[in-house]
Amino acid sequence: MFDKPLILVAGGAGYIGSHVTVELVEAGYEVLIGDNFSNCDRTCYEGVKQILGREVPLVEIDFCDRTATDNLFATYPIAAVIHFAAFKAVGESVTEPLKYYRNNLLSLLNVVESAERHGCRNILFSSSATVYGEAEVQPVTEQSPRLPATSAYGQTKQMSEDILRDVVASKGLVRGIALRYFNPIGAHPSALIGELPRGVPNNLVPYITQTAVGKRQMLSIFGGDYPTPDGTCLRDFIDVVDLARAHVAAVTRMVEDKMEQPYEIFNVGTGKPVSVMQLVEAFERVNGLKLNYKIVDRRPGDIVAIWADTSLAEQKLGWKATRTLDETLASAWAWECHLAEQK
Ligand code: UDP
């Protein structure tokens, strides 16, 4: 039924999953998307098909359903699974921790258990730079200590990494890669897929684009008195298409049997710190518009600065970020404009 290696993208209708699906298919893989549309609508799934000019098989499934997950792995010859099916709102995870522990951990447990049982050797987990917390030394390497998480979301990322590590070490039936994302932003150059936050965005770039398009009145820049060159926080903003290509490199490393350890971790960032203010100014310049913004109090829980040491990904995955911040911010704006045209 499938001539090429089949990759299950769990949560493939979401922001990152949809970009990964496109890059995997363009790299010659077959993709099966599993999604229950609990945290996204069909916009990105439709966009993926339009970009690729073909159907992409989709199974509507809740990975918290153990039987359904097991049946999926029993039915399809899955060469590797990429697990994105998780909730990601940090603030909500503090007020509703059980929702996050249940969804994010149960789905991972089911995926890992079924992969092991049905001979799917390769598991790629989407982790986060949030595991580093407020690191003392920048840039952070994969060896930097993981600090105690300050939210249930961050806690599920650490726990999921540990679950995967322990299962890999136990019977040797599966191997795993965890990719630690820094701040994914931007959209596909076609502007047919991108980030689609529900309600008021928590993240910076969707808030910027929604302010620019008039959906939000004003962007609040959280804190202008941090000990950084311009007083605003420093982050490592990674283009979502670059990020997606890191997944293709990691999947290839797994299915071609090139892993050096059965469980590996890679930072996925640009390696370059950019301040919130620099990002806002670049957005204005690249897209030729003025943003309504003001500097307000710091947001509780924000860390001052974090950026990635990306040398391990460069060496072992042969991957590094290629899109410029300007291209990325132009793509984010093109996507917001595309959404506005659909209305
Ligand atoms: N930020 C901001 N205004 C917003 C959203 C975010 O100033 O409306 C800042 C936030 O304080 C942080 C940076 O932008 O310094 C990135 O925040 P985001 O929530 O996108 O990602 P985080 O790094 O917190 O995971």
Task: Outline the structure in words.
The protein has 343 residues and is of the alpha/beta class. Helices cover 41% and strands 17% of the residues. It is built from 11 helices and 13 strands. The chain has helices at residues 15-26, 43-52, 66-75, 90-95, 97-117, 152-171, 204-213, 240-255, 276-287, 311-317, 325-342; strands at residues 6-10, 30-35, 58-60, 78-83, 122-128, 175-181, 183-185, 219-222, 234-235, 237-239, 263-268, 274-275, 293-296. The protein has a 7-stranded parallel beta sheet, with helices on both faces. The protein has a two-stranded parallel ribbon with strand order 7-10. Helix 3 (66-75) runs parallel beside helix 5 (97-117). The longest helix is centred in the N-terminal third of the chain and has 21 residues, at 97-117. Uridine-5'-diphosphate is lined by residues 183, 202-204, 207, 219-222, 233, 235, 276, 299, 302.
According to DSSP, the number of beta strands is: 13
Instruction: Name the bound molecules.
Output: uridine-5'-diphosphate
The separation of the N and C termini measures 39 Å
Strand order of the largest sheet: 3-2-1-4-5-6-11
Identify low-pLDDT runs.
none
* Rg value: 19 Å
What's this, in brief?
The chain is an alpha/beta fold and 343 residues long. 41% of the residues lie in helices and 17% in strands.
Write the layout of secondary structure elements.
Layout: E1 6-10, H1 15-26, E2 30-35, H2 43-52, E3 58-60, H3 66-75, E4 78-83, H4 90-95, H5 97-117, E5 122-128, H6 152-171, E6 175-181, E7 183-185, H7 204-213, E8 219-222, E9 234-235, E10 237-239, H8 240-255, E11 263-268, E12 274-275, H9 276-287, E13 293-296, H10 311-317, H11 325-342
Parallel strand pairs: 1-2, 1-4, 2-3, 4-5, 5-6, 6-11, 7-10, 8-13
Antiparallel strand pairs: 9-12
Helix pairs in contact: 1-2, 1-8, 3-5, 5-6, 7-11, 9-11
Bound molecules: uridine-5'-diphosphate.
